[in-house]
Amino acid sequence: MNPIFANLPTTVFEVMSGLARETGAINLGQGFPDDPGPEDVRRAAAEAVLNGYNQYPSMMGTPELRSAVAAHYRRWQGLDLDPNTEVMVTSGATEALAGAILGIVEPGDEVVLFEPMYDAYLPLVRLAGGVPRFVTLEPPHFRLTEEALARAFSPRTKAVVFNNPLNPAATIFPDEDLALLAEFCRRHDAIVISDEVWEHVVFDGRRHRPVLALDGLRERAVKIGSAGKIFSLTGWKVGFVCAAPHILKVLAKSHQFLTFTTAPNLQAAVAYGLGKEDAYFEGMRRDFARSRDRFTEGLRSLGFDVIPSQGTYFVNIDIAPLGETDDVAFCRRLVLEHGVAAIPVSAFYAEGAVRNVVRFCFAKKDATLDAGLERLARAVRRAA
């Protein structure tokens, strides 16, 4: 068996969700919302599967969706994309990441990874034969520094895998960090593969700044988006890849031999959804921010040290003030003894460099969040 995959442990998401199912715990670990998603978008998918085209659509994505993606990013992020040569549809953002890494990275190429990181990045880089070079971001701010980038970049750097907003940190990189990253990528002639799936789930008046808008990166970057995150339909697995034509034509070849294409009814529904009025996107952010605030206030009232959440479905706590030094052990106790599933953030680091941060998902109904807080209150009382 291929050791890249055979030697991987079961993902922490599956472990914690499995324990939640076995014990009846409240699952605040894996990042999916309770809400079924916008009804009009779901109805558009149902209508398209009953009365639309259900054979192979274009490998690059339906013209309707590619045009909708380009129009959406022009409207929200000021990007000027040619839907015919700079936009591709994939079966989810993870497939988009896989195709981009396999299409760009050759054996022996160095790839800069920022940890904490989505758990697919590292095995995909290794599958492509890439050599990972890590930049370890420290809580609570998870900022880039010139010193850390200088240690990671080298003349052998081929690509950078970047995530903004950053999961699991729930932070958004400020403009000065983005400018610093762009400078290093230009200096080292590196391509940025930018995972921007949380681009719409940002709070407190923030606006996402795409990698394609950074100085000097328009011709050396890949932007990846996700309909599942935009519409809270995580099971749909519809991703977007945006890049300059000379990059996208290569990524299209790797996509061709991974999934080839994506369900046409979902593409039709996503095209419809991307054209929704501003009120939908603003309301979605407002609703998630309200849940974030409700859960954050509850955590703080129990005495937890909360790291502020700027975006995503997540909020983190620092368990060091509780005298805890092992986030994995803490999360196991939490689910087995107190009935709440959370995620140890050390699982997002290649070697568990940070072991004092625990992630919760707040994209849940009020009753679920309140029940979770009630159980956490009992855990706090018992610890005291």
From TrEMBL:
Molecular functions (GO terms): kynurenine-oxoglutarate transaminase activity; L-aspartate:2-oxoglutarate aminotransferase activity; pyridoxal phosphate binding
User: Under which main EC class is this enzyme filed?
Assistant: transferase
Against CDD domains, the record matches this protein to:
AAT_like
Taxonomically, the superkingdom here is: Bacteria
Q: What cofactor does this one take?
A: pyridoxal 5'-phosphate
E.C. code: 2.6.1.1
Q: Which InterPro entries match?
A: Aminotransferase_I/II_large (IPR004839), Kynurenine-oxoglutarate_AT (IPR051326), PyrdxlP-dep_Trfase (IPR015424), PyrdxlP-dep_Trfase_major (IPR015421), PyrdxlP-dep_Trfase_small (IPR015422)
Query: Which GO CC terms are listed, alphabetically?
Result: cytoplasm
Residues forming the Aminotransferase class I/classII large domain are 25-376
Q: Which UniProt keywords apply?
A: Aminotransferase, Pyridoxal phosphate, Transferase
Reactions catalysed: L-aspartate + 2-oxoglutarate = oxaloacetate + L-glutamate
User: By its UniProt entry, which Pfam families does this protein fall under?
Assistant: Aminotran_1_2
Give the quaternary structure: Homodimer.
Family, per entry = Belongs to the class-I pyridoxal-phosphate-dependent aminotransferase family.
- Name of the featured protein: 8-amino-7-oxononanoate synthase
